[in-house]
Inverse folding.
């Protein structure tokens, strides 16, 4: 019986597809919050196969993984290939904390030429390409919810939020996606 | 034909493009691009409303957002009704319905106009005096009547069906105002490549170029030039041009609020599209180019329909092609009104006379008027006007004295000069300074990164305005890191316009001795006399004068009245204007809809609604939900025919007799990881953690510095360096903050990290004597026997094939488990357990049953049985304090004299004499029910329920010296009776706790 249990995605079946913007749930992905001091970074980066960024608003890609800088000693690591980043970190003997948040977070992909405008419907950040280029990522707010915003490409964003806030965040994006001109 | 007063060949609208609209039910024709004001005037309609206090007939004063008089209701359909819309701002569309306000039964015959005759009783401040006696009349007579008389217009009665949008935006330079200065500044800034936003409140850019017929720019008329500039700017990638967009508020750090009207001008707004869009612009620099507002003259009967600002008449003529009258008088103390007379005269309108309060005005405009043969009466004043529903004559008089003469007019234009629009500058916390030479307040000290250019900066000459604006645009762009590229092309200009002259205060002849009403504030019906009265009654500060008279306090915020009011007060006080001061300008500049401010945050999006992974299962079982913070929690699960009481009784019984399932997902969870994890826990909780073995749990209490209980929860040790901490549902965010705060500021040397896992885990509490039996077959890799896994232990393994952190713990007093599984599996695991439990009579129980069961065991709920003034000693939890510990947050607080002194309120149980009586939570407790009122209250009930399992009611209470009162009878006075109660221990069931270990 054990392996028959299906995951229930909180945004299963939701989709917004308007001219110039698409809002859809991202596929499930293992995630962890990694906490570590500076001296541990080379070993952890090596174990993960992605160089952990050390500057605010930065993310890095490698080994099918995205590492997002959240604070001087804090990263969100998303594994797009269903690996086990926490296990990889556990294999190296440097001081760190790896906590699985695969189910705490869920993600929404906003794509299309109007995606920045739609996100600016609830997010006060400057999303111009100069201020927030592809690869930029940060923890911020969207409406009344906390999100982590990653710009994957010029016209494609990944919004990470906690599971129980995802209905609100998706609903807000849906409302903002009506107003794409101007 | 779009109205008898539309002049062929005049204005910029296209005669063939007509639009039908109605005013008070009368069907009329206007032109596309008309405002309601211009369309009404084209149809010869000047009377559009009744004034607030005296119900005097009022017309259209202005052609812009400063309009105090012409407020109407605009109705699109039954749900879309907007009161107090300025006719001078509302664009007409085919099918627009406008209705006048503040009149009954009709605009022409209004009963409320009796107030005008009774006006001696309604002088300034009348409401502070008149309604003082008798006292009882206030509630029954005065207040209801004042409320029905107060305010203009009627609120819409249905929910607003429109949607409103919002957008945050950033730019290097925000330019507010699209007149000649704003356009020049925007263009100069944009040419550097800087990101520019240009907004203007009107439908088209141009500002004063709408009416300035005498200005030529780059070889074309000013308004066409403005259109061309706007087109050029719109075509640039780095520029956003927003028309119909009002900058209504200037907030901290160059955050400027704009509201963009998207569909109020459309006959058929696209369905589902937003009506308005709120822009919250974070601007590197702001250029304020908001222009100036013309002031009326203050003279007796200056409020009759047909009397309007000179510039407004020019807008109506030069932009809309509408003549505001056929025989027009002009009363001025300023040059620019002459241009209005000249324009009208050239359009074939008869100018009755120009009355100029100045003795010897000179200049090209005056000469031009003279050349056209217009009679100019210098050194004269308009003593009064006549006419009931529209002005019919003006009585002119030499200021030096002499005989008066009535001149027939059907419109009267006035100008006492121009007031720079320093509203936004003032909102930015900039300080205005009085300019002696020009008698006006101008931007003085700046508080934010902004600059004022053009008329709002007191720059009157066109050439200087353009130069100043262009320089500002380039400088602001450069300050934000953008260098000028090449030379800015010079704008070639020619102008015959002049804004010189002007006066403040009452016109000659409208002084103290004048009879009749000379209005200062048209919207709030404040006259020059009212202001003088306020001074006589002791109001010496302009702030007091304003509040006493309500001058400048209407929705127009005194755009046309503030300076006159100030000047009249200064004269009455015998002081100079800057000594009397200026009132502060506040946001919004013009009224903003609630819809725009609220935008997306309504209905489902008003706030976040958090639901657990098992939410839909609860819904399917007919659960009733309660809100706990932002969470929806299942409260109880009524079966068909059950009320809440019956459902809760059944749930309570089932848990103690068999087994119950409870969704505990909302509890906060924090993972504490690192070699110093136990050290950190020792510091943050009262309990000792060093000796807690891996795989064991402990109930922890967290205090604030002052020694009072802050939060509690069960903590499991997963490894030497890893704790799984739980918090209360409501406490989750603040407990993490509290921990992080201490970690970063007090104990930064500790090697430990905190991560919220509240939502990583769905938590299924399985509680009751059959709990183990039911889950055992589903669990892999964990020995559930009492010996291997006693009460208060935690194991990691699998349930239904998915990973679990399985806690053996209990908030019910029964043998129980709290099964943590990754959230996405929550509902599937829940259903699997449910299926297993059904043959055993399992029930799902909600938060109400949870409350009852824990109260039967005397388990506290932080925030219900504690209130921020309860120490662990008060709550009977001294056993949870590590006696050997040398430090923890709150340790010193616990030793404070008043926390260890006698007489503390302590948590006890209460039983009522009648077992069926359930006390009211919050009820006060007294020792002697026969003492005199006010009685000495010695405590209060914190939790109270009917306990089906006990067969009697139970209650917890905080009572002075409660621990010493066991067995005592106390009393709970209620409105209709006094209930006797007996003090007991706080545990009502299974005092030895045997059931936990079953």
């Amino acid at each position: 019986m054990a392996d028959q249990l299906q995951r229930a995605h909180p945004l299963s079946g939701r989709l917004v597809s308007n001219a110039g913007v698409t809002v859809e749930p991202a596929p499930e992905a293992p995630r962890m919050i990694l906490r570590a001091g500076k001296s541990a970074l080379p070993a952890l980066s090596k174990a993960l196969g992605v160089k952990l960024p050390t500057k605010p608003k930065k993310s890095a890609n490698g080994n099918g993984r995205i590492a997002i800088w959240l604070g001087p000693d804090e990263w969100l690591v998303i594994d797009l290939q269903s690996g086990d980043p926490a296990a990889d970190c556990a294999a190296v003997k440097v001081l760190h904390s790896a906590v699985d948040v695969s189910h705490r977070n869920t993600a929404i992909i906003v794509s299309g030429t109007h995606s920045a405008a739609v996100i600016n419907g609830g997010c006060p950040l400057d999303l111009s390409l100069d201020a927030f280029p592809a690869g930029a990522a940060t923890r911020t707010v969207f409406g009344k919810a906390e999100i982590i915003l990653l710009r994957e490409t010029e016209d494609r964003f990944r919004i990470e939020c906690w599971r129980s806030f995802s209905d609100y965040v998706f609903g807000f994006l849906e409302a903002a996606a009506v107003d794409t001109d101007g | 034909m779009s109205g008898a007063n539309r002049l062929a060949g005049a204005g910029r609208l296209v005669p063939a493009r007509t639009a039908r609209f109605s005013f008070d039910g009368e069907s009329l024709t206007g032109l596309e691009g008309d405002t309601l004001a211009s369309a009404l005037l084209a149809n010869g309609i000047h009377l559009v409303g009744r004034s607030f206090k005296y119900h005097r007939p009022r017309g259209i004063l202005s052609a812009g957002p400063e309009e105090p008089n012409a407020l109407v209701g605009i109705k699109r359909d039954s749900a879309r009704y907007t009161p107090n819309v300025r006719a001078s701002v509302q664009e007409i569309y085919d099918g627009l319905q406008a209705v006048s306000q503040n009149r009954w039964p009709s605009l022409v015959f209004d009963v409320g106009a009796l107030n005008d005759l009774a006006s001696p009783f309604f002088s300034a401040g009348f409401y502070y005096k008149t309604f003082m006696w008798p006292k009882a009349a206030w509630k029954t007579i005065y207040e209801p009547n004042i409320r029905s008389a107060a305010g203009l217009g009627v609120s819409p009665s249905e929910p607003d069906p429109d949607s409103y949008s919002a957008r945050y935006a950033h730019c290097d330079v925000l330019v507010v105002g699209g007149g000649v200065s704003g356009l020049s500044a925007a263009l100069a800034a944009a040419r550097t490549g800087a990101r520019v936003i240009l907004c203007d409140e009107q439908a088209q850019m141009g500002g004063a170029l709408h009416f300035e017929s005498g200005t030529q720019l780059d070889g074309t008329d000013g308004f066409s030039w403005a259109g061309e500039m706007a087109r050029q700017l719109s075509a640039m990638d780095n520029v956003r041009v927003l028309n119909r967009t009002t900058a209504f508020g200037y907030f901290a750090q160059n955050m400027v609020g704009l509201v963009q009207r998207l569909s109020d001008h459309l006959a058929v707004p696209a369905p589902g599209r937003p009506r308005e869009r709120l822009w919250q612009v974070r601007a590197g620099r702001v250029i304020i180019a908001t222009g100036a507002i013309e002031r009326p003259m203050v003279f007796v009967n200056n409020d009759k329909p047909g009397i309007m600002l000179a510039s407004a008449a020019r807008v109506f003529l030069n932009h809309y092609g509408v003549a505001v009258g056929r025989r027009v008088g002009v009363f001025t103390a300023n040059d620019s009104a002459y241009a209005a007379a000249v324009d009208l005269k050239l359009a074939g309108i008869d100018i009755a006379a120009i009355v100029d309060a100045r003795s010897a005005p000179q200049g090209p405009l005056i000469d031009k008027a003279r050349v056209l043969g217009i009679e100019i009466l210098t050194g004269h004043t308009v003593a009064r006007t006549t006419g009931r529903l529209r002005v019919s004559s003006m009585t002119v008089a030499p200021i030096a004295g002499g005989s008066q003469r009535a001149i027939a007019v059907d419109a009267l234009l006035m100008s006492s000069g121009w007031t720079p629009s320093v509203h936004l500058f003032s909102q930015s916390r900039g300080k205005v300074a009085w300019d002696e030479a020009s008698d006006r307040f101008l931007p003085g000290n700046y508080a934010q990164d902004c600059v004022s250019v053009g008329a709002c900066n007191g720059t009157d000459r066109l050439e200087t305005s353009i130069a100043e604006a262009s320089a500002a645009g380039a400088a602001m762009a450069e300050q934000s890191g953008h260098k000028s590229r090449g030379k800015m092309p010079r704008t070639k200009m020619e102008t015959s316009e002049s804004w010189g002259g002007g006066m403040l205060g009452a016109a000659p002849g409208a002084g103290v001795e004048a009879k009749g009403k000379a209005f200062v504030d048209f919207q709030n019906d404040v006259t020059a006399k009212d202001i003088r009265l306020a001074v006589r009654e002791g109001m010496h500060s302009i702030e007091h004068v304003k509040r006493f008279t309500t001058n400048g306090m209407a929705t127009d915020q005194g755009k046309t009245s503030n300076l006159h009011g100030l000047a009249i007060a200064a004269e009455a006080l015998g002081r100079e204007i800057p000594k009397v001061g200026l009132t502060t300008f506040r946001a919004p500049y013009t009224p903003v809809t609630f819809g725009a401010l609220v935008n997306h945050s309504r209905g489902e999006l008003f706030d976040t609604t958090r639901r657990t992974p098992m939410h839909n299962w609860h819904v399917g079982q007919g659960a009733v939900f309660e809100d706990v913070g932002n969470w929806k929690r299942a409260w109880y699960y009524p079966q068909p025919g059950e009320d809440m009481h019956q459902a809760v009784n059944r749930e309570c019984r089932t848990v103690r007799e068999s087994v119950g399932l409870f969704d505990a997902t909302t509890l906060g969870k924090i993972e504490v990881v690192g070699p110093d994890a136990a050290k950190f826990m020792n510091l943050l909780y009262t309990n000792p953690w060093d000796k807690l073995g891996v795989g064991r749990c402990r109930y922890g209490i967290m205090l604030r510095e002052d020694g009072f209980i802050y939060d509690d929860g069960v903590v499991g040790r997963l490894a030497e360096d890893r704790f799984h901490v739980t918090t209360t549902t409501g406490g989750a965010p603040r407990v993490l903050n509290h921990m992080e705060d201490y970690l970063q500021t007090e104990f930064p040397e500790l090697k430990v990290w905190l991560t919220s896992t509240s939502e990583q885990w769905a938590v299924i509490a399985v509680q009751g004597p059959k709990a183990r039996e039911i889950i055992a077959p589903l669990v892999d890799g964990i020995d559930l026997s009492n010996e291997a896994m006693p009460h208060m232990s935690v194991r990691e393994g699998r349930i239904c094939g998915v990973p679990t952190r399985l806690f053996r713990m209990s908030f019910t007093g029964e043998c129980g488990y709290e099964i943590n599984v990754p959230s996405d599996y929550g509902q599937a695991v829940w259903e699997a357990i449910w299926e297993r439990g059904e043959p055993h009579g399992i029930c799902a129980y909600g938060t109400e049953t949870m409350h009852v069961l824990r109260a039967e065991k005397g388990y506290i709920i932080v925030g219900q049985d504690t209130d921020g003034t309860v120490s662990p000693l008060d709550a009977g939890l001294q056993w949870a304090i590590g006696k050997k510990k040398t430090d923890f947050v709150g340790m010193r607080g616990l030793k404070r004299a008043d926390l260890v002194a006698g007489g503390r309120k302590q948590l006890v149980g209460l039983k009522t004499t009648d077992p069926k009586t359930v006390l009211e939570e919050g009820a006060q407790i007294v020792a002697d029910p026969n003492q005199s009122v006010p009685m000495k209250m010695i405590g209060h009930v914190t939790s109270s329920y009917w306990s089906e399992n006990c067969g009697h009611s139970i209650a917890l209470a905080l009572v002075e010296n409660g621990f010493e009162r066991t067995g005592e009878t106390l009393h709970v006075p209620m409105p209709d009776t006094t209930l006797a109660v007996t003090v007991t221990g706080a545990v009502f069931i299974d005092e030895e706790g045997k059931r936990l270990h079953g």
Notes: Chain A has two domains: 15-27+104-176, 31-100. Chain A touches chain B through 50 residues (CB under 8 Å).
